[in-house]
Amino acid sequence: MLETRLKALMIAGLAGDGRAQEALLSGCANRLRQYYARRLPGREADVEDLVQDTLMVIHKRRESYDHALPFTAWLHAIARYKLIDFFRRCRVRETLPIDDVADFSIDDEGTATMARIDIERLLAALPAKHAEAIRLTRIDGLSVKEAAAQSGQSEPSIKVGVYRGLHRLMNALQGKAK
Questions:
Q1: Which letter does DSSP use for residue 69 in this model?
Q2: Measured between alpha carbons, how far is 162 from 64 in angstroms, rounded to an integer?
Q3: CB under 8 Å to 14, separation ≥6 — which residues?
Q4: Are the CB atoms for 6 and 28 separated by under 8 Å?
Q5: How far apart are CA 58 and CA 7, in angstroms?
Q6: In sequence order, what are the residues at sequence separation of 6 or more whose Cβ sits closer than 8 angstroms to the Cβ of residue 154?
Q7: pLDDT (tens digit per residue) in 6-24
Q8: 3-state class of 16 per DSSP?
Q9: Which of 21, 46, 72, 150 makes a 20 to 30 Å CA pair with 83?
């Protein structure tokens, strides 16, 4: 299975196995070429550029991969972001035939993984105390009292951090200045 093979190569590559890292990038390149070629027919040069850009991100950000999560969901999230960036840069609006949706569909676990990656990306833009307050109370489900005890912050600080952090996230998502 692709997931099992790529995940094993990723973990071995992170442990310092150069051959595993090379095999991982090669396997990812094949998968990425299929993904991008299907979405950019007749644009082989753009496909190759996207594949190389994505491989660079995978290599540079490999330490951010969480071993507990599926590797292919992490790979697909990166590929999706690179494609969106490409479309924005080129001011391209593409549509896909409905038949193509199954090509890169992700199961419920993959969807949860991509949501987690999205959330972490958003929280990374916040001050650390705000992100921690949101993570502890809204994601981990701790009470304000529990979050304060775990983080070493006061209860009012947790409440303010959640409020300000969510307010900043809302403004960022709506495209408003901070």
A1: S
A2: 25
A3: 62, 63, 65
A4: yes
A5: 13
A6: 148
A7: 999 999 999 999 999 999 9
A8: coil
A9: 21
